[in-house]
Structure formats: C-alpha cells, structure tokens
UniProtKB/TrEMBL annotation:
Protein's organism: Ruminococcus callidus ATCC 27760
Protein's UniProt name: Putative dipeptidase
Alphabetical list of SUPFAM superfamilies matching this protein: Bacterial exopeptidase dimerisation domain, Zn-dependent exopeptidases
Gene3D superfamilies (alphabetical): 3.30.70.360, Zn peptidases
The keyword Repeat appears for this protein: no
Sorted UniProt keywords: Dipeptidase, Hydrolase, Metal-binding, Metalloprotease, Protease, Zinc
Pfam families membership: Peptidase_M20
Top-level taxon in the UniProt lineage: Bacteria
Molecular function GO terms recorded: acetylornithine deacetylase activity; dipeptidase activity; metallopeptidase activity; zinc ion binding
GO biological process: L-arginine biosynthetic process; proteolysis
Family assignment from sequence similarity: Belongs to the peptidase M20A family.
InterPro entries from the UniProt entry: ArgE/DapE_CS (IPR001261), Bact_exopeptidase_dim_dom (IPR036264), M20A_pepV-rel (IPR010964), Peptidase_M20 (IPR002933), Peptidase_M20A (IPR050072)
Amino acid sequence: MQIFRHIAQKSVEKSDYASYAQALLGVSYITIRYIEKEEGTFMLPEAVKTYIHTHRQEAVDTLSKLIGFPSVATPQPQDGFPYGKPAAEALDFMLEQLSALGMTCTNYDYHMGAADWDDTLPPHLGILCHLDVVPVVQANWTSDPFTAEIRNDRIYGRGAIDDKGPAVAVLYALCAIKAAGIPLRKNVRFLLGCNEENGSTDLAYYLAHAAMPPQVFTPDGSYPIIHLEKGMLRLEFTKQTADPIVRFSAGTAPNAVPADASVSLSAAFCGAAKQGSQITCQGNKLAYKGVAAHASTPESGDNAITGLLTYLGSDAAFADCKALAQLFPHGCTDGSGLGIACADTESGALTCICSMLHVENGMLTGCVDIRFPVCTTKEAVLEQVQAAFAAKGFRCEARIQSDPHHTPKDTPFVQDLLAVYEEQTGTKGECIAIGGGTYVHDIAGGVAFGMEYPDWDYHMHGDDEFLPLEQLEENTCMMAAAILRICGE
C-alpha cells in the first residue's frame, strides 16, 4: 500500500485520490476505491453520491407514484390477482423501472417480483422489500394516505417508511451504480413482495419456485442492524356471546395497536365507569379513542379495545367483555393477564396485545399478537394462552407461529453491513434485538438493515406515516454503499 503512504505524506484529500493516483501510477479510480476497501476505509464513490443527490427529486416523484397505489393486500385473491389489483399494479410499476434500468425481471405470478443485475451469474446478495401496506383509517390522517404530500421536507403517505420508501431507495441506489459505470462481480437480486404485512405467503410462493441468495438483507427495520427477532404467535379467539352487543368494531390490522373502538348496544349501559376524554357516548353507541402503535412496541400506544372492554366490563351484563378485560388488562402489554409474561437479557420482554375485536350477530371474534423472547417456545406460550382462554369459555386457535430469528453478530455479512453503517453515518454500529418480525424472519442468515434511524418515530403503521426527504437520499447512499461493498469488484 505504498500509494496510501505517499498520499498521506502529501496530505491529499480523499476526493483527489483518483487524480493523484493516476498521476503517480496511472491507477484507475475503481482500483483506488477497492484499495481503500482493503484498508478498511472504503468510501462511496463521488459519482454515485452525485447521481443520488441530483436525482433526489426524481426519487421523490417515484415514491409519490408508488404511494398512490392503495396496496393493502387482500386476504383472498381478488380481480385475478393473489393480493388484489393495487398490489399487482405497484409491483408492475416497480418492475417497469427496473427493467428500464437493464435488469432482468421475473414476476412470480404477482406474489413477488425479482430483478437481477446480471442473470448470467448466480444471485449472491438479495435485497428484500415489500410493496403491500397496512390498512388506514383515512379520517385520522391530515392528508389522503394514498396521495403523497410534501410538508416540512417530509413525504407523507402510507408506505413512506414501510416499505415503499426503502424500495425506492434501493431502486435509485442501483440506478446510481449503473450510471456511474461501476461493474459488480457478484449478482444482486432485488426482491419485491406483496404480502409481508399479513403472513408473508408471497415469500413462501417465491421459495417454492426459486432459491434465496446466500446473503439477504431487508431495509424493513431499523439501523444499525437487527440480527435477532422475537418469535411470533398470531391467534384468533371466538365465542358466541350473550353480552348485549349489536356490533363491536375495532382494529384493522393484526399487528397494530388499534386507535379506535366502537360498540352499539342492544340495551342501556348501566356500568359504574365514568366517561372521560377517551370515552364518548351517544345513546347506545360508545367509542374509545386511543393511540395507534406497532405490535412490537405496544407500550407506545393506547389500546382502544382494552380501554373500551374495561369500560363495558363495569356493567354486570357484559360478562364476556369483563373476562376479556381480565385477560388483557388495559395498559398491560407483557401478557400477564394470560400468564405468559417472561423476558431475557438478549431479546427482551414478551409483548402481547389484542389487536382486533369484532362482534356481529352474537359471534365475538378477536385477534392476539404475541412476540416472545428466546427464553421460551411457541409451544409453551400457545399452551398457556389456550388454557387461559378456555377457562373463560373462549376458543383460541393459532393462525401464525414462528420461532425467534437469530443471525450471529460475527458473520462476515453482518460485519460488512456494520462497516457500511459506520462509514456512512460516522457513528458506531451495533447489532440489536427487536420484537417486530421483519421480512427476513424466516430466512437463514438474513438481517434487517435500515431504514429507520435510532430515536426517530416515523408513525409506521400509524396515522400520518412519513419519511424525511433528506433521509431518503441518505438511505439511497447507504443502499448503494452496501451493494458495492458486498458485490463490487
């Protein structure tokens, strides 16, 4: 590395490495760039950064168009598509952009799309994003959730941070590398799914037709790197209820703390509970106004279901509501009411919420989302929960079960991504554990890398979801740096 010592002696700026090296040795910028990498001081090429900066508005416009597809995946095939027409249109839109870039695109029957940088090479790095989004309560938004709006240097819209913004960042990272003329020695496969928010059946379909690349990350989480994710149980409970309820409605997504709950009663309410700022009553109709949150961090929300159940349970006529309020005490998110509270040092505490509850024609149906640490098992948790429900006269069945996901911190892949984070942000990178299930939860060796920065609340899964425009550019640089470090020459 004589060239480095010579440059250091001459106090040459990093931006002048290429011209100075060429003057000394005739060495190309590409060569110098990877000499830097060997020395552990790899920096993103200026040509890539310049492209990303000058095409920032174009990226914002692309994200705005993508937000415009109301791609809430349908539970059953609709309009000839497995997850409905809007999800299919969002996938078509992104594959068109990638095809125009010269990538080889494959549509796996609208479950998932794939774009290969060089299809003559086996895929080495997989970058996994999803185009489906969680439902919205449009009345709670400041602007139309499916019409992107720029306010205060932020782009607002459903999917801005989860996961359409990340998908656009990856797209423009690839565009920048292509425009800079930088070759890749390993193939990148960009994967775009349409059912991450409701079971990831898109991944199952893809895996039935193709293999995952050996290294996979998803910008469907947080920085620096999420290497450990709790196990998850998603349960459905039912009971034919005698409570005087005409209709109970709360929750639009199984993995979110509901902000709103309402009930229509067939008899006058005679409970002892008092109305407050969160409870409203008009005749025999009651409503509770809470605060939405992701199921992995329920302590940051106010569950409207448990709030309303607690209120109704003060009336002796609402025996089933009282029973549910005992299983899910308002403000309790650790599963204590079900007898499943536990925690460990590495992955943290168990979280548990009642995320959806509906009553119609006397049939009560609800959903439970549980994220459990590595110190227990899904079998043990399920057995205890079913016993707790059975003791109250409810039937409970598992709909989704998954073990914890863990990728060791010392793998070269993880260390490469940590180095990219440190180089791009100037801050120390570390591996973290979360309760949320990212898109790589069932992919061996996979990790989540971005796009949420620490200490930021982007209102993910909540009202007025947003992404700062500056962070869209920064994340595009991050994605480009990761691609070049792992697959560059």
